[in-house]
Amino acid sequence: MGCGGSTSTKTNDGRESHEKPKGKGVDSKPKEKEEDYLREPENDSVDLEDIIVGYPPPKPSSNRKEHIFTELDKNTADSRANQIKVEDYQTLEDIARALTEGLKNDVQKVRAIFTWIGSQGSRGDKSSQKDKSQSQDATSPQTIVQQVIQRKLSFNFLFISLCRAAKIPCVLIRGLGKSISYEVGDKDVDSLNNSWTAVHVAGGWRFVFPLWAFSAVVGHSKGTWTLVETQGKGAREKEEKSSGQTISHINDYFFLTEADEFIYTCYPNDSKWQLLTRPFTKQDFIEIAYCRQGYFQNHYKITTPTKCIYSSVGGVCDIGIKKLVKEECSYAYKLFFNHEESKTTLSSEIQLERYVAIFNEGPAMRFRVRFPSEGIYKMQIFGDGSRLCEFRLECNEDVNDVKPFPCNPESGFGPNSLTEEAGLKAQSHKTGFINIKQTKNVNMKFNITKNVLVQTILIHNNMEQETLNKHVNHKIKGQELDINVNLPEKGEYALQINTKDKDSDGPFKNVCNYLLTSENMNKKRKPYENAIEKRTRKALQDNTSSNDIKALKKALDDFDKIDMEDKGDRQKAEERLTYLSLRKELKDAIARRHGDKLEEAIENAKSSQYESDLQKLIKEAEDLLSQLRRLKRFAHEVLKMQQPTISEIHNYKHPKPMAYDVMKATYILLGEEEKRVEEWEQIQALMRKTGKEGLLRRVRLFDTVNVTENMVNHSSQILRPYDEERIQASSAGLGTFYKWVTDVIEEIRKSENSPRD
């Protein structure tokens, strides 16, 4: 999305991002002006109005892209587009008619226009066609297409012209776009002028960015970054400055892009055209994390602050990310050092190896970056084979004592899916970091579910392996693995747990790792606890048995403040707090009846160790989420209706009884009292209302939670004499409302009759 700036690694959107010099603060040097091939000109040589008077006003869409654009729509429209040759037509209006005539809906029509334009860049030799265009009419489609390919006219011009010729509302939006001249963390974005379009289809405005959809730049680099670490391996690969190469392709991501994703890289001058319920400020746009299309398409979420600049604390930065859907994902990263902007140089004696570690935290991953030197760094995170996001990391502190991790395992620190696949299920330590405060010893327990051999290895940056081998041992009793580590001295260690099948002659495979840090491990403990310590432990034990999250958190804080020995109480309290928090998240999401919150709460609960304990709440949340999705699907056809269709129903002077009954049943289900819908004139008055009381808005926000049994029975009784076929034959608009009412009634009755626990 856009094209940002630094490595020569190809992104999932066909572009490459590369770093560049900066001004004061983040930008310490004047920007070198360069041509941005992913920026549209501010003005075309042919005038075109940005917006036409009478278009629907900009407002957030009620549906996601997948709800209005199907695979059938795509195949139908693309097939039509591939049949149309520019040289066969005399005007753009002729081409628009050929592309859209007979297609089922506006989405298919816009898709046909989009695909046809995108395919023009790959048809024929550019230079020979340029010569041919010299003798053609300046307004002919062939000439216009060639001018677009040669960047003499914008892609926006051609796309808008064809959409308007097809009677589809289409506007030009001007603003800022994070293109190849953008570098993650830039605070000065005023030079990023760009433009894109929005089309009104399926009842709402949707973004289309033709230039970014049809063009990409590969190999672009400012030459300001050096790759210093990737996947735990040190590197010193200095980028070469390059303007890159522009290529033509079709990237569907920039067709009907979601507004809440588009804002991460495109900021319109007019905030209404963000199409968001809560618009971003310009400062929000500057500070927001630089997330690529793979981040959105594969459903990821940043779990640490969603910002593009992180500053080190104690020589360390943490970046968290998780996948919102329950799928396996392997992560990768690249760490860069800015050799031009950093105040210091990275010593050739420092090999950045193992300065990044990955911690498994249930469904989330946390990347911990340590900095061996002051300076400006950049972190790129990859998942599902795509670049997901990147961050500017600033280290402005003395980091002489920062050391690399003992190891950097590919599977990260902490139990994960590989651990369970190998036949081990963690029972005691379920996160990858163990802070040992009171003793040299740590004991870990696993359940064994397969017939395997186990190998345990303790690792330290400076100690001999022979010495370390004496300080770790394990034993298997039945189906339980018991691992004991006795640290030789204060410091940081890594524990590797490897397995292989008992019948295998092959090597051991690493399946789980822990990072162990000891603090005050030689501190002597008193053989007794004083009165304050006893009260503190008792309070922790009591609150662990309660359901009060706030009180339990306070008890844990009090326990930690006086540095008490665990004795198992703290571990139990932490586990109880996790369970209570997950339960509360599910209950809150159910009470709010919010789809996104329900999805997140369900995912968090199912990926935790408490899935079975929370099964009843999880099922309730899943059932509610399914119902909300069905209600949204029911409303979809109503929300797709054009205003003329609704106006036609409203304008009935003497409606047939079925028209009156359908609309009366609709309004009763929406909560209107019968005395307010007794006469057709009353229904007409309701249909004239706009804003919060508008008919389509009420359908979009409809929820069964406010529907009574009497409302359901009354609406059902009103519609009993009719069937869908008869209503549909009379009026498509009435048929749509009839279908919505009957679907909702059926859903409510099914829900009421479903067995409850």
Give an overview in words.
The strands form 6 sheets. Strands 5, 6, 10, 12, 14, 17 and 18 form a 7-stranded mixed beta sheet that branches. The longest helix is centred in the last third of the chain and has 26 residues, at 615-640. This protein is an alpha+beta fold and 757 residues long. The chain is globular, with a radius of gyration of 31 Å. It has 25 helices and 26 strands. α15 (549-561) runs antiparallel to α16, α18 (615-640) runs antiparallel to α25 and α20 crosses α25 (732-753).
What attributes characterize this protein structure?
26 strands; 22% strand; disordered N terminus; globular; single chain; seven-stranded mixed beta sheet; 757 residues; alpha+beta
Q: What does the largest sheet look like?
A: 7 strands, mixed
Number of contiguous helices? 25
Structural class, please?
alpha+beta
Count of β-strands = 26
Q: Tell me the fraction of residues in β-strands, as a range.
A: 15-25%
Instruction: Work out the helicity level.
Output: 25-40%
Distance between the termini: 47 Å
- What characteristic shape results from the CA principal axes? globular
Mean pLDDT, as a whole number?
A: 86
Oligomer: single chain
Radius of gyration: 31 Å
State the gist of this model:
This protein has about 750 residues and is of the alpha+beta class. It has 25 helices and 26 strands. Strands 5, 6, 10, 12, 14, 17 and 18 form a seven-stranded mixed sheet that branches. A five-stranded antiparallel sheet has the order 8-3-2-1-9.
